[in-house]
Amino acid sequence: TVAAVSHKLVGEKVPRRFFAWALLALVGVAIIMRANLHDPGHSLRGDLLAVVNVFMLTAYLLYSKRARLAGAPTLTLTTAIFVIALVVVVPATLFTGVAWPNRVQWGFLLVLALGSGNGHLLVNWAHTRVSAALVSLIMSAMPILASLWANRVLGEPFGASHVVGLAVVLIAIEMGRRVDRAAQG
User: What percent of the chain has pLDDT over 90?
Assistant: First the structure.
């Protein structure tokens, strides 16, 4: 979705060939998602939230790209985005009856905050160096990482379909990167 609207919102010209690789990455993600379709942990609600996340991630990437192009410092932008996220997420969490994390879960949350926080910081830093469309394409690797973590931490299955989806996504990312690089000059 970022590639489809980035021209209008941040002035990027996305080559037509890029869309083909983005579509292939989407196919890879679908293969990964389909691999656990009949798993007891699968939920339609989770799938719907993933679709909503696509639009939220699009808004986040394009907003942060515009802010960086307008001169916003990377650390300031990332901090502001995290504060806004806290203002939204903490009250939502308190009112939905989600259980308070235990000690081990707080440890995982700390690791995730530091790791993911650095990821957001690096994405925001990269906005002045690469297209938002390429950043979005690279982020299609998240289901791969999520599947690997789910296997390691939760014991969810990781089989041949996951490997095929992983390969498709990685090929699409690399080919999209090449197309983007050639277009950038």
Answer: 23
